[in-house]
Amino acid sequence: FYYMLYIVPTPIGNLQDITLRALETLKTADAVLCEDTRRTQILLSHFGISKPLYRYNENDDRSVLRCLEALKSGKKCALVSDCGTPCISDPGWKLVKEAVANGIKVSSLPGPSAVACALAGAGITGGAFTFLGFLPRKPGKAAKLLSAAYSQNHPVVLYESPYRVVKMLELVAKTLGGETPVILARELSKVYEEWIRGTAVSLAEELSKKSKVQGEFVMILDRPAQTEEATDEPDSYF
After folding, report:
1. Same domain, yes or no: 202 and 138
2. Residue 22 and residue 31: Cα distance in Å, rounded?
3. The domain that contains 52 carries what CATH number?
4. I need a labelling partner for 166 at 20 to 30 A (CA). Which of 130, 195, 209, 212 fits?
């Protein structure tokens, strides 16, 4: 393939978290497709990189088409979002889908992801989990998704803004029960990184007392503590 689209994760907070491969890809790309040109310019300038920036708006079909045409014209393009990995609760999937349909090779680089970072630091049972990203604004739809996901008996991971985190905790309490264990990871990798643990009710009360809630949240809904029953299954396959 001559045409190439690179999916490039960028730091979720601390700029030092960018990978060497991501930097090399950004340096060698013909253009960078980005969610917000201002945010991306700050990142590139920090690392001394100068590239043409194309605004990528997933909600605008013309924007998707312009970026696709740039790829089809022979440009090697790097797709980034404001932070983290594109296409994971961030723009990108429509362009990736169109690129694949048009025979354009897509390479996805590993790198920063808030959901992986939060799960690793949560101290909960490893293995399966359900990731819902940002839930719908309508409480009824959000409650249905929460109930369905939590019924799978796996931890559930959400993204939430500082403006709605209290309302989401209240919805969790109403839908799943006030004693639902919750872990909130705020401002991951940044100076004011914070981990808050409690129940849906206690955390809603704690945050509602603050004059201002700041920072983006990863919310992990854990399972209530249970006594593990002995089984005949081996602890490991190895």
Report:
1. yes
2. 14
3. 3.40.1010.10
4. 130
Q: How many domains does the chain have?
A: 2
Q: Scanning the structure block, which residue is given the tokens 């920072």?
A: 215
The rounded distance, in Å, linking the Cα atoms of 204 and 212 is 13
Boundary (domain end) residue, out of 108, 123, 148: 108
Task: Return the structure tokens found at 111.
Answer: 């790198």
Range of the domain at 197: 114-221
pTM given for the model: 0.88
**Sheet of 181-186, strand order:** 130-133, 156-160, 217-221, 181-186, 194-199
State the SS3 of the chain. Answer: CCCEEEECCECCCCHHHCCHHHHHHHHHCCEEEECCHHHHHHHHHHCCCCCCEEECCCCCHHHHHHHHHHHHCCCEEEECCCCECCCCCCCCHHHHHHHHHCCCEEEECCCCCHHHHHHHHHCCCCCCCEEEECCCCCHHHHHHHHHHHHCCCCCEEEEECCCCHHHHHHHHHHHHCCCCEEEEEECCCCCCCEEEEEEHHHHHHHHHCCCCCCCCEEEEECCCCCCCCCCCCCCCCC
Over residues 111-137, the pLDDT tens digits come to 999 999 999 999 987 789 999 999 999
Q: Give pLDDT tens digits for 136-176.
A: 999 999 999 999 999 999 999 999 999 999 999 999 999 99
Write the single-letter amino acid at 58: E
Classify burial at 215, counting beta carbons within 10 Å of its beta carbon; exposed 0-12, middle 13-18, buried 19 or more. middle
Q: Among candidates 40, 24, 31, which has minimal Cα distance to 70? A: 31
